[in-house]
Each structure stands twice: as C-alpha cells, then as structure tokens.
Amino acid sequence: MLREHLLGSPARDGHRTLDEVHAAGMQVRREVLGDAHVDRATAATTDLTRDFQELITRYAWGSIWTRPGLDRRSRSLITLTALVARGHHEELAMHLRAARTNGVTVDEITELLLQTAIYCGVPDANTAFRIAQEVLADELPGGEAPDA
Asked: Which helix (H) or strand (E) holds 91?
C-alpha cells in the first residue's frame, strides 16, 4: 500500500492527486533549500534512495510544508529546534541556510539556540552554535560568530 502511494496511485491528499502533491513539494523544496541543493539531491538519487526521495518530497515538502497553518518562517524555527534536539547536524546546517531564506534573522537563530540550551541541553546547543558559526560566518560582523 505504501509503495503504491509513493509511486503514484490514484489516492489523494486532500483534494490533490499525488502528482500534484509531489509537484507542490518540489516547488517548496526548491524555494526553501535552493535549486542547487535539490539538483544535487536529485542527481544523487539511486535505485536504493528513489523511494525515499519521493517520500520526503511528497510528505515533508508537499504535505507538511505546504499546509496553511504555519508560515515557512515558523516552520523553519520549529525544524531548527527539532534538529538540535535530535542531534541531526548535517540537516541542521542545511536548515540554517533555509531558515535565512525563509526570513529568520541571525539574532533569532541565536535566541533559538540559547533556548535549545535549556530544553535540549548545553552540549547540543554548543554543537549547534558551532555549526551556525560555520554556516552563517559570511553574515556575521567580522565574518565570524562569537565563540560558543
């Protein structure tokens, strides 16, 4: 059943076909992560990862990021917090860039990371600050973030 759903069965997401959900997901994915990132991910798709790429495009980007209940900026803040909490460092770097695309300021990212120190733990926040320093270095005064 899941395989049929992933591969384009006529099931619907609300009033959209799965192809429409995929197209909407690809559009949002490109707008948030950038064409270069999506093109690299798409080019790196193999027989092993094809279904997974379809899954994240349809569900994460096409079904969740397109919902009207939260704007992209809010979704980025939530995503950053979740990634810090779970220790997903590679994804954190990518979503820090996406958050800036979605209008989250460097000051807001700093506040978010301080908040994660309390609720996720100081070691996780320390690592997140290091990653943010690397990712956001060009945008910070003097080209680098303060030491974490």
From this structure: helix 89-101
Q: How confident is the model at residue 15 (pLDDT cuts 50, 70, 90)?
A: confident
State the Cα torsion 38-41-45-49 to the nearest 10°: -110
The two structure tokens encoding residue 79:
């995503």
Q: What is the mean pLDDT of residues 62-67?
A: 96
Least Cα distance to 30 among 59, 5, 62 occurs for 62
For residue 94, what are the CA distances in angstroms to 10, 13, 69?
33, 27, 23
Rounded Cα distance, 127 and 84, in Å? 8
Averaged over 88-102, what is the pLDDT? 96
Q: Does residue 118 contact residue 126 with C-beta atoms inside 8 Å?
A: no
Quick one: CA dihedral 85, 147, 131, 72, positive or negative?
A: positive
Question: Which tops the pLDDT comparison, 145 or 26?
Answer: 26
- Say what the pLDDT of residue 147 is: 47
CA-based end-to-end distance of the chain: 47
Tokens standing for residue 47: 């027989």
